[in-house]
């Protein structure tokens, strides 16, 4: 391989790293992708979304929803009712995450099975560190 080919490969690698970092910035955190998955069934109110996710605190959920809205993945809709009604829904742009959430979910199931298999092979003390 020539130096020019190596340099191009390094440039492509750097571009790929930058692209991955950009993607992780947009969807990073424990809750962003689970929120997207929860909203894939349709619009939800804040409390409905919090119940669907179970362990998320209101403060964290609010922060994550704002960041998802800023990145164009969700839309906050306010209705003129008494009391005020607010729902959150996916935008058409969130469709760009369908393949990501499907692949990540498939990998998560595979990884969980891998860890369970490994834990059967290890001593009890060693296997405790593997469980998600």
From TrEMBL:
What PROSITE patterns would the database entry show? HTH_HXLR
Cross-referenced InterPro entries? HTH_HxlR (IPR002577), WH-like_DNA-bd_sf (IPR036388), WH_DNA-bd_sf (IPR036390)
MF terms (GO), sorted A to Z = DNA binding
Domain named HTH hxlR-type is located at 13-116
Alphabetically ordered keywords of this record: DNA-binding, Transcription, Transcription regulation
Q: Does the keyword Coiled coil apply?
A: no
Q: What name appears for this protein in its UniProt entry? A: HxlR family transcriptional regulator
* Protein source organism: Chitinophaga japonensis (Flexibacter japonensis)
């Amino acid at each position: 391989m020539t130096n020019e080919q190596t340099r191009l490969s390094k440039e492509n690698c750097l571009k790929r790293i930058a692209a991955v970092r950009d993607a992780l910035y947009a969807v990073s955190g424990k809750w962003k992708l689970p929120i997207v998955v929860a909203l894939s069934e349709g619009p939800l109110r804040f409390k409905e979304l919090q119940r669907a996710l179970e362990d998320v605190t209101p403060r964290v959920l609010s922060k994550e929803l704002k960041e998802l809205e800023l990145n164009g993945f969700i839309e906050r809709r306010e209705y003129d009712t008494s009391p005020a009604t607010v729902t959150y829904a996916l935008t058409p742009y969130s469709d760009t995450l369908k393949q990501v959430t499907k692949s990540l979910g498939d990998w998560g199931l595979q990884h969980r099975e891998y860890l369970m298999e490994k834990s059967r092979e290890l001593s009890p003390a060693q296997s405790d560190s593997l469980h998600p």
